[in-house]
């Protein structure tokens, strides 16, 4: 395969499956496993209405349990596959393969996963892509191992050569690299024409150092969906307002402003006094639908309306995600799409 034929598809392009990892007692979900299982069941139910899902499981017992829970919820099990392999945790957005697509072949980029800068044990997760490939679940593919820490949640592409990311995250991972150096590396590895950097934006309770998928997302036809904050008394107000101004100043590759879709701000969700990172920007686009995190909040329906406008022709499905944000992530963070033809 030649490098010229490879491209990084946008999330809204056709997919073959969604990759997940089932939570179990050996993961950080142990304390609230029952709650998070309900979210996974709802998530798999939503995905399988539109396309297959491939679920990593730690062993045969975890697989048998997951099968039973899913089947008892009347999920179409013909669209559910399982693969047994070890993993530290279930954040597949950051540990799964970043897929480049060619005319007939795929290249799986296997960046280093360091547990978000050494915050958590990540030895098994750093081997996930290679083990998935060795298991033979991908078609017409090769793996490129890259000795550079990068998580899938840190990058967002429009599928047409523009990459969106945050300086806070990339600088935290690579403090000795300049913006120009990081820009060049990202463009080369990810086959991009340019990188758009956001210097503002964060969420309390987010331990990823401001992953872009909690803040701002590309949408079809030169649009950007982003998490806004309209409460001047909220500690996020100044930073997210500055981010909104940055996004408004961005231009498409041909010099036009982006169409902007600000998402509503949910009421603060606390856990023992700790603010949780509830973001509507952490949604997942699949074939024919957008699966959005719902927080049992009055703003849920407003967020759904924004996503319907930004992704016309797709059904908007709300998936309950309060259990996920207890561990500092949400719906997009646990999911990795596989392009059409890969699985």
Automatic annotation (TrEMBL):
InterPro entries: Peptidyl-Arg-deiminase_porph. The keyword Transcription regulation does not apply. It holds the Pfam family PAD_porph. SUPFAM superfamilies: Pentein (SSF55909). Keywords: Hydrolase. This is Agmatine/peptidylarginine deiminase. It comes from the Bacteria.
